[in-house]
Amino acid sequence: MEESSIVKYYLRKIIIAGLVILAVLWVITPFVISILYAFASKTDYYSPNILIPLHYTLEHIQKLLDLGATRAIINSVIVAVITIIISFALGLPAGYAFAKFVFRGKDTLKLLIIGLRMFPILVIAVPLVTLYIKLGLNDSLLGVALAHTAMALPFVIIISSSIFAGVPKELEEAAMIFGLDRKGAFFRITMPLALPGLTAAAIFTFIMSWNEVFIASVLTLTNRTLPAFILTSAMAAPDFIKFAAGFIMIFPAMVFVFIARKYLITMWGITLK
Amino acid sequence: MVDVHLKGIVKRFGKTIAVNGIDLDIRDGEFIVLLGPSGCGKTTTLRIIAGLEKPDEGRVLFGDRDVTYLPPRERNVSMVFQSYAIWPHMKVYDNIAFPLKIKKFPKEEIDKRVKWAAELLQISELLDRYPHQLSGGQRQRVAVARAIVVEPDVLLMDEPLSNLDALLRVKMRSELKKLQRRIKVTTIYVTHDQVEAMTMGDRIAVMNKGKIQQVGRPDEIYLKPANVFVAGFVGTPQMNFFDATVEVKDDEIILDASDFKVRLPKDYLPVLQEYNGKTVIVGIRPEHIYPEGHAPTTAKKLSWIEGTVDFVEALGSDTILHLNTGSMILVVKISGSHHYEIGSKVKVALDLSNIHVFDKESQVSLLYKKQREVQSS
User: Fold this and answer.
1) Is A177 in contact with B88 (Cβ distance < 8 A)?
2) pLDDT tens, B56-70?
3) Both ends of chain A: CA-CA distance in Å?
4) Quick one: which of B253, B300, B304, B243 has its CA closest to B274?
5) How far apart are the C-alpha atoms of B257 and B130, rounded to whole Å?
6) Is residue A52 part of a domain?
7) Which residues of A are less than 8 Å from B77 in CB distance?
8) How many domains does chain A have?
9) In chain B, which residues have their Cβ closer than 8 Å to the Cβ of A271?
10) pLDDT of residue B372
11) Do A9 and A109 share a domain, yes or no?
12) CB–CB of A68/A229 below 8 Å?
């Protein structure tokens, strides 16, 4: 009787471990393949007998950078940063209002904000281009950033409102009793406590903008962001160049997440959602 | 230090009325307790005094200063929250020093005051820690230290002990009370715990449904409850209530409670005369009913009835009998440990000098109504 329960216990553990390994492989394999092939030498890549390349080179990356990827990376970072700044400047106050106040039409507004994401980008792309040409925003980084802001804003509002709701209102009320006004209480109490969550939101916004390809391709010609550049330039190139392009896409995002990760988990030993 | 006056405070949230016309005068340096069940409006009243809510009607006065529409920071009040509201991103020292920093005290003065408050609450060795490294009781002390460090005019406490375990609660009760006596700050304390209210308050304001039911010293609240609600809310086990018909005969009054009759002495004649033939609510506390052999020698006016033991709660220090008198259960509290057989018959005496009579309609006490009318006029 006891023996069988021990067997059951370990069997369960093994099955769970197996499922976890499977899930990890599922996620990690494409990364490993594209990273390996991004640095594989030309001969190794084309040799039918070699699965895991033995000779590595920076040649493909170098070639891509020379072709204009450097400029595209800088453009992408600029667009992502502007997107974060604008969407946070607009989204945080809205998120705070949703979290801390009760007002008429609150639920309808929330629904409308989520509803904004309902329209396929494809549908608004052409009118957007015409509008941008009229405004002189076409082929500008600010233009792309504004379009990305429109895409990121609903997300920033909803996420930040749930982050602010996670900071107990008594903490702010205590600050107001002990001498601050609401603005002071927000900046000195709520903001520091919400920071880990907001960092996470910033990372997601960054990655969304970094990855976004369609609008960026439609709105720019000479000032390409990285995905738009890759789509228009690298896709005609040999496969190993494509893998190198993939690596350039992944790498900065990965570094960004690794650096910011520790802010996500704990700060001052407390965890807010 | 200041006296606080509430004048006709009304607060609505949508269609519900949280506070329904409260008048209360709190003396300088007094420890007053707002006592009531959850949802009675006591916390809302406290938040209105703090400035966290604005009343829809009425005025809040600190001394002769009208603070009704002042933001909290301009009132010089302090508050201890139920959840303590210690800022998790600041060390204990910074938590306590924060109110002083905001008010731009010089550095040495801040240091002096923080150390003074920490000493008073015995948390000096915790000043360098973060709140998450503290136990519930320690956090509570930090919250109190932060509240007294600014020497507020009014100290507000919103159920500060309700998140502590039972032993610690008893300890903090006396500590808070002693602390308040030492620094003599006007204190308004909200609780639903009647024992806290009785042990800590100089006066108690019992609230229900957004209204103050009675204000008085703890012994007044206990011995002379103004109505059925106060009588039933304060005291454990709860006061026994039963309906009875009043019969006035020559020079005695009989309360006919269907199961038994109680003969009241003629002292009650002035208040009960007009109720001849009408039904009233009679109340008597469990410790004012004595089984045979347990009646104190001082109790003179007794009325004996008989009942069957239905249930016994042996608490060690007290024995609580549930006595079936036919159609109702009377709860009887005897001090000490005693054995009673379930189903056995017991004769008990009602102490007629501690009996309460309430109007059936208004639920107001008939005995103490006249007294209060004299007091208030």
Assistant:
1) no
2) 999 999 999 999 999
3) 43
4) B253
5) 62
6) no
7) 177
8) 2
9) none
10) 54
11) no
12) yes
For B240-376, CATH gives 2.40.50.140
Residues of chain A falling short of pLDDT 70: 1-2, 261-273
The nearest CA of chain A is from the CA of B103 a distance in Å of: 7
Please give the structure tokens belonging to residue A99: 């979290």
Residue A247 sits in the same domain as residue A194: yes
The verdict on a CB contact (< 8 Å) between B78 and A270 is no
- Residue B197 DSSP symbol: H
Mean pLDDT in each 10-residue stretch from start to end of chain B (377 residues)? 92 93 95 95 96 95 94 94 92 95 93 93 93 91 93 94 87 91 94 94 95 95 94 94 90 87 84 89 94 84 90 93 92 93 93 92 84 49
- Say yes or no: A123 and A231 in one domain: yes
| Contact check, Cβ <8 Å, A179/B99 | yes
At B75-121, the pLDDT tens digits run 999 999 999 999 999 999 999 999 999 999 999 999 999 999 999 88
User: What 3-state DSSP class applies to A138?
Assistant: coil
Partners of A193 on chain B (C-beta within 8 Å) are: 87-89
B227 neighbors B213 (Cβ within 8 angstroms): yes
**Given an 8 Å threshold on Cβ–Cβ distance, is A181 in contact with B89?**
no
Range of the domain at A254: 59-271
Q: Is B269 helix (H, G, I), strand (E, B) or coil?
A: helix
Q: Give me the residues paired with residue B203 across strands.
A: B32
